[in-house]
């Protein structure tokens, strides 16, 4: 197996893993009972799966400008996902959709 | 690479379908926001897989725009929901 084929196999594995993570996130979004648990299922595999897909994509393309764009997307995803997740969770608390009896630690005021 | 493309297409398509189920069933606006976020991530992933399989970078600017729009969308909906609950201006 030549070096190029090896890189292609690694990229394929990364792509499939990333798509699998996105699928797991969607299953969690459908099956979990309330907003906070759905966010728990959604945000982490979604970000990690997307990073895996972008890593596989970065292995497949050659030009430096394209690689820069991929890095920008990855960086942007890492920066914005926590912010939007935090804001959605805070809005969930403010609108009273959290079952506060079920929480172990409740610091949401 | 064709096998990889087919597997990824099936997985990401199922992801989109499940997110659509959650968007339709709700029950609240924030549930739909979370599901729409995952849906957008699936779209970004699908475009990324397509670019990786085809070995081209033509669609990469779409990825940047899509990531930006998804972030703005969920933040503005969250702010809207919070201010409605506080009785403030919508």
TrEMBL record, chain A:
UniProtKB keywords: Membrane, Transmembrane, Transmembrane helix
Superkingdom classification of source: Bacteria
InterPro entries the UniProt entry points to: PhaG_MnhG_YufB
Pfam families: PhaG_MnhG_YufB
Transmembrane residue ranges: 6-30, 42-61, 67-89
Family that this chain belongs to: Belongs to the CPA3 antiporters (TC 2.A.63) subunit G family.
Name of this protein: Monovalent cation/H(+) antiporter subunit G
Native source organism of the sequence: Aeromicrobium duanguangcaii
Lineage summary: Bacteria, Bacillati, Actinomycetota, Actinomycetes, Propionibacteriales
TrEMBL record, chain B:
Location relative to the cell: Cell membrane
Main localization of the protein described in the UniProt heading: membrane
Membrane topology annotation: Multi-pass membrane protein
Transmembrane feature ranges: 35-53, 60-82
UniProt keyword annotation of Cell membrane present: yes
InterPro entries (alphabetical): MrpF/PhaF-like
Pfam family, one: MrpF_PhaF
Swiss-Prot/TrEMBL keywords: Cell membrane, Membrane, Transmembrane, Transmembrane helix, Transport
UniProt-listed PANTHER family: NA(+)/H(+) ANTIPORTER SUBUNIT F1, NA(+)_H(+) ANTIPORTER SUBUNIT F
Family the entry assigns: Belongs to the CPA3 antiporters (TC 2.A.63) subunit F family.
The protein, known as: Monovalent cation/H+ antiporter complex subunit F
């Amino acid at each position: 197996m030549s070096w190029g084929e090896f890189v292609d196999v690694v990229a394929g594995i990364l792509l499939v893993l990333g798509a699998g993570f996105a699928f797991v996130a969607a299953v969690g979004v459908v099956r979990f009972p309330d907003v906070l648990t759905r966010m728990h299922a959604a945000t982490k595999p979604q970000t990690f799966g997307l990073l895996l897909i972008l890593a596989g994509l970065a292995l497949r393309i050659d030009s430096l400008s394209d690689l820069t764009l991929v890095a920008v997307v990855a960086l942007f995803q890492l920066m914005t996902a926590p912010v939007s997740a935090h804001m959605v969770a805070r809005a969930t608390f403010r609108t009273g959709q959290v079952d506060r009896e079920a929480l172990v630690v409740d610091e949401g005021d | 690479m064709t096998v990889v493309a087919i597997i990824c297409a099936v997985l990401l398509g199922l992801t989109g379908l499940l997110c659509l189920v959650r968007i339709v069933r709700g029950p609240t606006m924030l549930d739909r926001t979370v599901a729409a976020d995952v849906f957008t991530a699936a779209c970004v992933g699908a475009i990324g897989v397509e670019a990786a399989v085809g070995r081209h970078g033509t669609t990469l600017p779409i990825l940047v725009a899509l990531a930006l729009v998804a972030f703005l969308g969920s933040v503005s909906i969250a702010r809207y929901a919070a201010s409605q609950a506080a009785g403030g201006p919508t």
